[in-house]
Write a structure and sequence with these properties.
Blueprint lengths: L1 H20 L4 E5 L5 E3 H14 L5 E6 L6 E2 L6 E9 L10 E8 L8 E9 L3 E6 L3 E6 L5 E6 L8 E4 L8 H12 L3 E2 L5 H10 L3 E5 L12 H14 L3 E3 L19 E4 L1 H11 L2
Parallel strand pairs: 3-5, 11-12, 11-13
Antiparallel strand pairs: 1-2, 3-4, 5-6, 6-7, 7-8, 8-9, 9-10, 13-15, 14-15
Bound molecules: 2,6-di-O-phosphono-beta-D-fructofuranose (FDP).
The site of 2,6-di-O-phosphono-beta-D-fructofuranose (FDP) has 12 residues, from loops.
Amino acid sequence: MTQIFEAIKKSAVRIKEAIEYDDTGYSDLQNATGDTQLKLDIKCDLIIEEEFAKVASIKEIVSEEKEEITPLHVDGKYLVAYDPLDGSSLIDVNLSVGSIFGIYEGGQAGANILASVYVVYGPRVELVIASDALHFYRLNKKGEFIFQKDIHLAQKGKLNAPGSTQSCWEPKHKKMIDAIFNDGYRLRYSGGMVPDLHQILLKGGGIFSYPATSDLPKGKLRMLFEVFPFAFAYEKAGGKAIDGKNRLLDLSPTHIHDTTPCFFGSNAEIQRVLETYAQ
Ligand code: FDP
């Protein structure tokens, strides 16, 4: 597992450089979900594949940018699912983006995730490893990730990050979000899952939601590459992650690109979601 974390750190340093200096334009290609790929999406995917190819314990990799699982080492035991450049629609406006990794053993299910990692490319590069706990690192000038602290969520927070298009929300969801704002929560939503979830973790708590909507009844965010890694991280920080009713890590995708509605937060906010969605 340590070798996988090291490969992710090396990838992150290379991706940071690509984000800073490479062409931010679109390619002529589309990914598995039909999104037109940025040249950077393709490059970041290649960087990660190159670094993972050197790690013997990785059996297979699956990228948000690819249609199929790629076999790597027959004697390896882990499947690593990753989103090389999440929030890539924010690249042209120079907001923070991220990479997300889920490390699984025994098949593609929430229950099989053993660890997860995410990287935030903002004014600084930060990396968070969820394993026994949630460990927070920052990149220094020498290209090393220096441990800062373990992250813990409070029982109740102050931030609200409500995703998707409001006109497509169910009435009960709108009522819940309005009630949360009426209780004094502040809006913090950049449109990048990684920085938005990172902010809630570092500021002690709150709620991020990407619900089922009339245009996307199964939500937008992908289970293997985005949702399970963050569900694992939030639970390690003492918070919760649900689809409205069920624990996200109890779900299993039938296809690698399956999506799910998702809510991540501290315990008090997730309790509100459970009460709303039980109706
Ligand atoms: P993006 O489309 O820029 O890749 O991964 C999908 C994602 O970004 C998340 O990072 C982000 O939280 C979400 O989409 C934002 O979606 P909305 O604009 O619909 O709120």
